[in-house]
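Dear H.,

Thanks for agreeing to be a second pair of eyes. The structure we're designing against is below in C-alpha cell form, covering all 134 positions.
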C-alpha cells in the first residue's frame, strides 16, 4: 500500500533541520516500546528519515526483527515545540545508502557519526507527522 508523504510547513521543516537530539521508539519482540536518544536527518523530498547507528544496537535489532511491518516513531522536542515522524523502518548497511546517511548527518550536526565497525542506517519511510508549536 502506497501512502502519500505528509506535507510539512516551512516552520516544521526548519525545526527538523535544527541540530537537536530526538528519541526513536521501536518495538521489542513482546510489543513493548523501547525508546533511545538519537541524532537523525530528514529528507522532505523523499519523506525518508535516517538514523545512523550500530547494526548491533537494540533499536536496529528491533527494526530488523519487525521485518517489513516494523513501525517506529521519531520525536524531536525543544521545550513546548515538538514533531513526531511515524512510519515503517528498515536497517541497511548498503555502502551507498550508508554514505548518504553519513553525508546528511555530517551536514546537520557538523561532525560525522562515531566510527564503529558495524555502522548501519535505520531508514524510516515517514507516513505521518504530528507536531505542536512548529
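And this is the sequence the design step returned. I haven't edited it by hand at all.
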Amino acid at each position: 500500500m502506497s501512502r502519500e508523504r505528509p506535507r510539512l510547513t516551512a516552520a516544521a521543516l526548519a525545526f527538523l533541520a535544527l541540530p537537536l537530539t530526538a528519541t526513536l521508539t521501536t518495538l521489542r519482540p513482546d510489543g513493548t516500546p523501547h525508546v533511545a536518544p538519537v541524532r537523525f536527518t530528514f529528507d522532505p523530498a523523499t519523506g525518508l528519515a535516517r538514523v545512523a547507528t550500530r547494526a548491533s544496537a537494540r533499536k536496529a535489532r528491533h527494526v530488523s526483527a519487525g521485518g517489513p511491518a516494523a513501525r517506529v516513531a521519531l520525536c524531536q522536542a525543544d521545550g513546548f515545540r515538538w514533531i513526531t515522524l511515524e512510519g515503517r523502518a528498515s536497517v541497511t548497511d548498503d555502502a551507498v545508502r550508508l554514505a548518504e546517511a553519513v553525508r546528511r548527518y555530517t551536514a546537520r550536526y557538523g561532525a560525522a557519526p562515531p566510527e564503529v565497525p558495524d555502522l548501519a542506517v535505520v531508514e524510516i519511510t515517514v507516513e505521518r507527522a504530528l507536531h505542536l508549536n512548529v
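Two observations from my side: The chain is about 25% helix and 40% strand. The beta strands are 22-27, 33-38, 41-43, 48-54, 71-78, 81-92, 119-132.

Warmly,
E.
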